[in-house]
Every structure is written in structure tokens, then in C-alpha cells.
Write a structure and sequence with these properties.
Structural class: alpha/beta
Strand order of the largest sheet: 1-4-3-2-5-6
Shape: globular
Bound molecules: adenosine monophosphate
Largest sheet: 6 strands, parallel
Radius of gyration: 18 Å
Number of helices: 11
Helix content: 40-55%
Order of helices and strands: EHEHEHHEHHHEHEHHHEEE
Number of strands: 9
Distance between the termini: 43 Å
Strand content: 15-25%
Length: 254
């Protein structure tokens, strides 16, 4: 039975009495509205550790657009069922007041990569991500934490933060998981209209076509996508597009 832990002090008690020095702990941070890709991270953690905790916290500080935060899907009962079925041991479910006793006066920033790609289009987004992940890693004290390569830039920034601050938790990258039509799983996919959901797989198809970036942009725009960016980062192509109200990101090796 998955145990729901709703306060930091309760988690610390469990950690001190049942986990510390006895069990290997894996951690999967999420914002809820769980899907198969989230569960693949949880399953990996279960395979590699004695106990697994998944956090569900819709982190307000990483949303630069208030409407995006308001519309973000919230499906806790289903999330709990999926985690139960997967065999997750704990759900850490804090609220905003617990996570931000400082009212977000203390902010963790990176000064280079965080300003590129998604960072250039979502001001403050990665400050919010890094700050909350630092807090969560400090609270949970896991041996390993699992992050998806769907959020490639986020993974690189979190790995860099953990290295820069000599953090004790290992940061483990997990492969990007796609639906059968190629669309990367995302909690935001549920917000697409039927028409946009049918169009959406073209994003990955075009991104993995091997064409030039200019040709990719032209093709996606002519299909009805708004392009936020398509840019190369070393041997990866990173991209974000907008369909209606929904922003989608993806990345491929090239
Ligand atoms: P989120 O709830 O969107 O913050 O995601 C929680 C974790 O799941 C992050 O580490 C994401 O990178 C990961 N994740 C979300 N979607 C995918 C996907 N399609 N493939 C792999 N990992 C994913």
C-alpha cells in the first residue's frame, strides 16, 4: 500500500526511523497528472532501490504563465492508483506553504544554460525548477533521483547543480518515452483539442527527419504549429512549439 506523506516533519521521521542507514532510497519528483513516462521512472527507481518515494508538487515558481498553472491537469486520485499499481512505497505531497517558508526570497540560479532554449522563452522558469529540486532533494535525502530526458535542458541543469553543490543524491537520466504515434508523453497532452492532438505527432516526425532547421520550421509552421524555438545543443536538437494554448517540448539526437 503506497503511503501518502503530507508534511516534511512526517517524512523526516519516516526517513530517520525506517530508511537511514538501512535501505537504499530512490526518488522521482513530479508535478502530478501522471502518465506512462512518469511510471517508467518510478519502475526504474523500484528496480534499483529498496524503497521509492514519488513527490507530487505543482510548483508555482516555475510557471511564468499564470494560465498554464491554472490549466495544468490535476488528477491526484488517479495518480495515487497508478503509483499503487506500480509498487511505489511513498507519495510525498507537500503544499506551497511548506515548500516556501521563505516566500521564495531565496532563489537558486544558474547563469548560462538556463538562459538558453526554454529559458530564453520562459523567464524565471529554471530558477523555479532548480530552487524546488534543491529543496526536494534536501528534504528527501535519497540515494538516487530520477529525471526524464524529455526535459533535456532541465536534466542537464539539475545534474550541474548537484555537481556544483556536492549534493549527496545521484542524478540519474531516464530515456524519453513516446506514445505509439511518436508524441512524447506529457501531462499537457491531455489539454490538446482533438484536432491538435491529431496534428501533434508531426512535431517528432519533422524533428527527427534530418532536414535543416529552417526546413523543419517551415514545415511545422505550414501545418499550423507556432514555433518557440528549434536549436542545436551539441549533438541534440531541442525544440518547443505551441498548438493552441498548449506548449510542447521535445528533443532528438542528431
Ligand atoms: P513533470 O511532472 O512534468 O515535472 O515530470 C516529472 C519527471 O518525469 C521529469 O523528470 C520529466 O522529465 C519526466 N518525464 C515527463 N515526461 C516524460 C517523457 N515523455 N519521457 C521521459 N520522462 C518524462
Amino acid at each position: 500500500m503506497v503511503k501518502v506523506v503530507e508534511s516534511i516533519s512526517e517524512w523526516r521521521e519516516i526517513f530517520e526511523s525506517e530508511i537511514k542507514g538501512k535501505k537504499r532510497l530512490g526518488f522521482v519528483p513530479t508535478m502530478g497528472a501522471l502518465h506512462k513516462a512518469h511510471i517508467s521512472l518510478v519502475e526504474r527507481s523500484i528496480r534499483e532501490n529498496d524503497l521509492t518515494v514519488t513527490s507530487i508538487f505543482l510548483n508555482p515558481t516555475q510557471f511564468n504563465d499564470p494560465n498554464d498553472l491554472k490549466n495544468y491537469p490535476k488528477t491526484f486520485d488517479r495518480d495515487r492508483e497508478l503509483l499503487e499499481e506500480a509498487g511505489c512505497d511513498y507519495i510525498f505531497l507537500p503544499n506551497r506553504e511548506m515548500m516556501y517558508p521563505d516566500d521564495y526570497r531565496y532563489i537558486l540560479s544558474e547563469t548560462d544554460l538556463s538562459n538558453k532554449f526554454c529559458g530564453a522563452h520562459r523567464p524565471g522558469h529554471f530558477d523555479g525548477v532548480l530552487t524546488v529540486v534543491m529543496k526536494l532533494l534536501n528534504i528527501i535525502s535519497a540515494d538516487s533521483a530520477y529525471f526524464g530526458e524529455k526535459d533535456w535542458q532541465q536534466y542537464k541543469l539539475i545534474k550541474g547543480m548537484a555537481d556544483a553543490f556536492f549534493m549527496q543524491t545521484s542524478i540519474i537520466p531516464c530515456p524519453l518515452i513516446r506514445e505509439s504515434d511518436g508524441l512524447a508523453y506529457s501531462s499537457r497532452n491531455a489539454l490538446l483539442t482533438k484536432e491538435h492532438r491529431e496534428l501533434a505527432p508531426n512535431f517528432y516526425r519533422v524533428l527527427s527527419s534530418g532536414k535543416s532547421i529552417i526546413e523543419m520550421k517551415d514545415e511545422l509552421e505550414s501545418l499550423g504549429f507556432t514555433i518557440d524555438y528549434i536549436e542545436a545543443d551539441e549533438n541534440r536538437l531541442l525544440a518547443a512549439v505551441i498548438l493552441g494554448e498548449v506548449r510542447l517540448i521535445d528533443n532528438v539526437e542528431r
